[in-house]
């Protein structure tokens, strides 16, 4: 029972490292892009500096020339304000891009981790910590989930549980013989397989129950869980 826990811990640690590296890479790339963009944007006072230089170097005396310089100075101020707003827009877009990319990395790692976990479950079966069979009530407590079964399904599950406690594996004919009371030679393998199918249908989720009730080729049926967690009342 220790191996699955260790595997899950290693998977979580690997996922955390991948998320950390991914976020760090995203931050570095976007930070470099931000530095490049802000470094290449022209200075907001460049236009005003050119107008001031023109005013100093040229001998402008007429009213029209002075009016033109005033218009140019106002244009330079407007240009400076536009550049400030552009910088704010770029900063906000970079923040949004960083958040979206980080969210994509986290979701991608979550999907990969979930797929790995599902693969581990398919290989090792369901992690059942408690299986309690209450025959009088036709009820089964699987971990913390209470399930109601039919009489036939309860008989089948009880036979499988007793065999699992004893470390045995039952064929379909043996299951049918133990439930019906007939001799094993008089029982059909298909009848036991039908009881197993009805039990799986009664338990519900087909994927989960196929993992819980294993069919070993040429050997028989067995519950894929630790016999120590089974209790029959």
Structure write-up:
The protein is an alpha+beta fold and 233 residues long. It has two domains: 2-124; 131-232, Winged helix-like DNA-binding domain superfamily/Winged helix DNA-binding domain (Arc Repressor Mutant, subunit A), CATH 1.10.10. It contains seven helices and six strands. It has helices at 2-40, 46-57, 63-124, 151-165, 172-180, 189-203, 206-212, and strands at 131-134, 139-142, 145-148, 213-216, 220-223, 230-232. The chain has a four-stranded mixed beta sheet with strand order 3-2-1-6, with helices on one face. Strand 1 (131-134) and strand 2 form a beta hairpin. The radius of gyration is 37 Å and the shape is rod-shaped. It starts with a helix and ends with a strand.
Topology at a glance:
Layout: H1 2-40, H2 46-57, H3 63-124, E1 131-134, E2 139-142, E3 145-148, H4 151-165, H5 172-180, H6 189-203, H7 206-212, E4 213-216, E5 220-223, E6 230-232
Parallel strand pairs: 1-6
Antiparallel strand pairs: 1-2, 2-3, 4-5
Helix pairs in contact: 1-3, 2-3, 4-6, 5-6
Describe, in short, the structure shown.
This protein is of the alpha+beta class. It has helices at 2-40, 46-57, 63-124, 151-165, 172-180, 189-203, 206-212, and strands spanning 131-134, 139-142, 145-148, 213-216, 220-223, 230-232.
Mean pLDDT: 75
Determine the fraction of residues in helical runs and give it as a percent range.
Answer: 55-70%
Proportion of residues in extended strands: 5-15%
- Unreliable segments of 5+ consecutive residues: 1-5
Instruction: Please give the radius of gyration in angstroms.
Output: 37 Å
Structural class: alpha+beta
Choose one word for the global shape.
rod-shaped
What's the number of extended β-strand segments?
6
End-to-end span in angstroms? Answer: 25 Å
Count the domains. Answer: 2
Largest sheet: 4 strands, mixed
* Number of continuous helical runs: 7
The spatial strand order of the largest sheet comes to 3-2-1-6
What is the chain-wise order of helices and strands? Answer: HHHEEEHHHHEEE
């Amino acid at each position: 029972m220790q191996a699955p826990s260790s595997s899950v811990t290693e998977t979580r640690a690997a996922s955390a490292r991948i998320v950390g590296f991914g976020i760090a890479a995203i931050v570095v790339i976007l930070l470099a892009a931000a530095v490049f963009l802000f470094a290449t944007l022209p200075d907001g006072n460049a236009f005003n500096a050119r107008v001031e230089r023109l005013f100093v170097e040229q001998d402008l005396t007429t009213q029209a020339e002075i009016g033109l310089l005033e218009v140019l100075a106002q244009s330079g101020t407007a240009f400076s304000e536009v550049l400030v707003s552009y910088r704010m827009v770029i900063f906000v877009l970079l923040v949004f891009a960083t958040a979206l990319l980080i969210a994509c990395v986290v979701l991608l790692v979550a999907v990969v981790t979930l797929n790995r976990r599902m693969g581990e479950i398919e290989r090792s079966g369901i992690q059942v910590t408690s299986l309690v069979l209450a025959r009088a009530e036709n009820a089964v407590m699987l971990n913390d989930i209470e399930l109601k079964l039919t009489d036939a399904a309860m008989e089948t599950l009880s036979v499988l549980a007793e065999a699992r406690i004893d470390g045995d594996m039952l064929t379909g004919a043996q299951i049918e013989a133990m439930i019906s009371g007939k001799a094993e030679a008089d029982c059909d393998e298909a009848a036991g397989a039908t009881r197993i199918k009805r039990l799986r249908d009664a338990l519900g989720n087909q994927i989960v129950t196929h993992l819980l009730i294993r069919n070993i080729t040429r050997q028989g049926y067995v519950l894929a869980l630790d016999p120590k967690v089974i209790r029959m009342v």
